[in-house]
Specification:
The chain is mostly helical and 178 residues long. The chain has a domain of 116 residues: Winged helix-like DNA-binding domain superfamily/Winged helix DNA-binding domain (Arc Repressor Mutant, subunit A, Orthogonal Bundle), CATH 1.10.10. The chain is 61% helix and 7% strand. It has a three-stranded antiparallel beta sheet with strand order 1-3-2. α4 crosses α5. The longest helix has 25 residues. GO terms for molecular function: DNA binding; DNA-binding transcription factor activity. Keywords: DNA-binding, Transcription, Transcription regulation. It comes from Ornithinimicrobium pratense.
Length: 178
């Protein structure tokens, strides 16, 4: 067996040897996306853990920060933007509130609604952590030239849009996942 440039190359070669009748090119693409996601996720989790956060917690803080001053959204808007269930968002909000990074309060204009806002400490932490997060992502993408990164981003955007993951627009602010 010939050793490839990455693990996926090795797996594809094994398939070619045992099933030469199969076109395994799709496995290569999806396998590499999956493997890149696994490696990036591992590096991201390690970075956030060093700051006392879980990736989902950072996602909430970053979503509030991206919303602009006064850095306040409803739990429903946060759940939609972070693409998790209302139960998951409630758990994240509770952990972040316990850490003093956000606060929940009743909406003064509609007492049935809850508003979630960054605290001063939450804003300071997300401002600090986002810069290192970007450096971590730059390091992960370093094997590619800036032009290749742009090309890859465009191809992935087209793949996701073609798979039904189109941009959401609603009556509230539009957010993009970090």
């Amino acid at each position: 067996m010939v050793v490839g440039a990455d693990r996926v190359s090795d797996y594809l070669q094994q398939w070619r040897e045992v099933r030469p009748d199969l076109d395994v090119a799709p496995m290569g693409v999806v396998g590499r996306i999956s493997r890149a996601n696994e490696l990036a996720g591992r590096a991201t989790r390690a970075y956030f853990t060093g700051h006392g956060l879980q990736p989902g917690e950072f996602d909430v803080l970053a979503t509030l920060r991206r919303s602009g001053a006064p850095f306040t959204l409803t739990p429903g808007e946060l759940a939609e933007s972070t693409m998790v269930s209302s139960a998951a968002i409630t758990n994240r909000l509770s952990r972040l509130e316990t850490k003093g990074l956000l606060r929940r309060r009743t909406d003064p204009h509609n007492r049935r609604n809850v508003l979630v806002a960054l605290t001063k400490d939450g804003l300071a932490l997300v401002e600090q952590v986002v810069e290192g997060h970007l450096e971590n992502e730059r390091r992960l993408l370093a094997p590619l030239t800036p032009q290749e990164q742009t090309q890859l981003a465009g191809l992935l955007e087209r793949l996701l849009a073609g798979s039904g993951d189109s941009s959401r627009t609603s009556g509230s602010k539009s957010h993009h996942r970090d």
